[in-house]
Amino acid sequence: MWSASYDILIVGAGIAGSALAHALSAAATARGRPLKICLLERSLAEPDRIVGELLQPGGIMALKKLGLESCVEGIDAIPTYGYCVMLDGKPVHIPYPEGYEGRAFHHGRFIQALRAKAKEAACVEVIEATVSELIECPLSGRILGVRATRKEEGAVEKEAFFADLTVVADGCFSNFRNQVMGKAALTPETKGHFVGLVLEDATLPIPKHGTVSLVEGHGPVLLYQIGTHDTRILVDVKNPVPSDLKGHILTNIIPQLPASLHLPAQKAIEKDRLRRMPNSFLPPSEQGKRTKEGVLLLGDSWNMRHPLTGGGMTVAFNDVVLLRDMLLDVKDLADWTQISHMLHKWHWARKPLASTVNILSVALYDLFSAQDPYLEVLRTGCFKYFELGGNCVREPVSLLAGIEQAPFMLFRHFFTVALYAIWILFTSPRQVGVANGKPVYARPRPDEYPFLAIKSLRVFWTAVIVFMPLLWQELRY
Question: Could you give the C-alpha distances from 346 to 176, 186, 193, 335, 463, in angstroms and in order?
């Protein structure tokens, strides 16, 4: 049976796998100790996915550190300068800090650009093959490599590929997650699905900004321009998924979007195929001491967050930046004691960015999809907080964009929003009736204060039970 040996074997030529292959090759060659790297991918055809199309400014910064900034050029990528959030038909502008921009693009074009860089890298062999199993030592249990079948005429079935270290980056539907993690494995929590379409020549409320439209009775709708004529729309659909998705979107979602999007959305749903992706959350359990020797997980195979905030690729590229430098400092890639120590350092070095993005993605989703009256109070407070401007916008959006890596800054702003929401509850006019077909607003009366005080406690407790379990998961694992 045929076999080949490498220093590092990477399973999956997606975002993380392709970036790591190029980054390790370039850095190792520059240090004068080139590594023999194999990158295995089931299909090297251009992928067609509905997520992984918005790269935050923090991700652009990481791309530059990896020498991959050219991958967002020549693919009709659109610069993005922040967000526009639509609540009750009113836009709230949340710009990135001055001098920062993200990029939005067709996922497949970006992936092909990353793969092209990996193919060009010295000592990297990119092979189209389906990995069927990890090769495990019968005595020690260590992972020695993989068995894979090449996608070519007359290929050897289950050819062996050996390496000192195997990196599994096979995405959110990983076939090897549980085998690698063993008793440390966690189960992804699926909060629903994003259903995706591409709108042609649509006009967003604020051009070159991601748009989040909050739909009454349903989850948020996310839109961003991914090409000169193309705009991605992602509709959040909670479980159980409606049997008639097209009817659901046409009846319940599109009428609540900005008027400029109605016709493009109706045309897209008539001619395009609806595709969906699960919105999963998977905390990163530490690798090394309690996981299989000789192998590690990278990217969505190991850590996932809600895609609402578009932070997944930013986290992946930052992980690769850190992993590249730490792996090159390991003297012997076959020495699991050294690798295990490195994985511990890497796990905690990535925490400032990864935990910030992970927590923010789920917490924002909970607020933006609020059906609970106390979450609705927090959501209103969040928008009023953004309207204050200054650091009330600059710091939160810097966290969202991956520019700032500070979980406790996120903690401070989240609970400041909670307290401000309570202040708004007592001081802001709210609708008390309708006169002549128009809503009537009034501030709370003093005799309502006892009731509002009790409600305020429930609002603050809701903020605690949204945020603190997420923070605990990040600190615990």
Answer: 21, 19, 31, 17, 31
Torsion sign, CA atoms 452, 456, 459, 461? negative
Alpha helices in 92-244 (DSSP H): 107-120, 177-181
Mean pLDDT of 329-339: 96
Task: Provide mean pLDDT across the span 67-76.
Answer: 98
Q: What's the pLDDT score for residue 1?
A: 47
Q: What is the arithmetic mean of pLDDT over 231-243?
A: 93
What pLDDT, on a 0 to 100 scale, did the predictor assign at position 87?
85
3-state secondary structure 333-381: CCCHHHHHHHHHHHHHHCHHHHHHHHHHHHHHHHHHCCCCHHHHHHHHH
Alpha carbons 118 and 13: distance in angstroms, whole number: 9
Question: Residue 11 in contact with residue 168, Cβ under 8 Å?
Answer: yes
Give dist(CA 418, CA 461) in Å, integer: 9
Query: Do residues 361 and 309 touch, judged by C-beta distance below 8 A?
Result: yes
Whole-angstrom Cα distance, residue 348 to residue 378?
Answer: 31
Q: What sign for the dihedral angle of Cα 329, 333, 338, 342?
A: positive
303-314: b (≥16 Cβ within 10 Å) or e: bbbbbbbbbbbb
